[in-house]
Specification:
This protein is of the alpha+beta class. The chain is built from 6 helices and 7 strands.
Length: 174
């Protein structure tokens, strides 16, 4: 069983109210149209999850205020930031402003607006140098004034699949 099926089964078993709010699976055609709309290729693990369910219904959040977005909302959120420079890290008080535009970043999850620290979760896409397969690393966009002094995007170094596995572990512990 892959980690996405495990997450799906964990939600079904441990969180029936949340399970009722999962949106029906995306079709392969919907995923193909999604890739065409955003002119990008998705990692296989991302496609696997969305073939099980297409995110959470509106106003449906995990225990910590996280909402996995359906494909149509990912397009909306991603197009909102596409081409925008963002602060990617601060080191010794010096800011680094990306001189490269954010064209390979998907906004895949939002936090409740009341969350004081994190605005969204992104998936930064890149091709493998060896295989040319697309992979994605998870990054978090921190809000100004929470645990960070400024708005900042930080990579947490996990792939999409690893991040989903960590959600499954947390759900089992609730």
């Amino acid at each position: 069983m892959n980690p996405f099926e495990e997450l799906y089964q964990t939600i079904e078993k441990e969180q029936p109210a949340l399970f009722a709010q999962l949106l029906p699976a995306a079709t392969p055609k919907a995923i193909e149209d999604f890739e065409k709309t955003l002119t990008l290729s998705l990692p296989d693990d991302f496609k696997e999850l969305y073939l099980l369910f297409n995110g959470f219904a509106p106003h449906t959040y995990l225990y910590d205020g996280l909402r996995l977005l359906p494909l149509n909302e990912i397009i909306e959120q991603t197009q909102h930031i596409k081409g925008s420079p963002v602060v990617t890290y601060e080191m010794a008080g010096e800011f680094f402003i990306a001189n490269k535009k954010q064209n390979n970043l998907l906004i895949i999850a939002l936090y409740e607006p009341s969350n004081p620290d994190i605005a969204w979760v992104g998936l930064k896409l890149s091709p493998s140098k060896k295989t040319q397969k697309i992979s994605g690393k998870i990054c978090l966009m921190y809000k100004e004034g929470g645990i960070h002094d400024f708005e900042e995007m930080v990579s947490i170094g996990e792939t999409f699949g690893e991040w989903i596995e960590s959600l499954d572990i947390v759900l089992k512990d609730l």
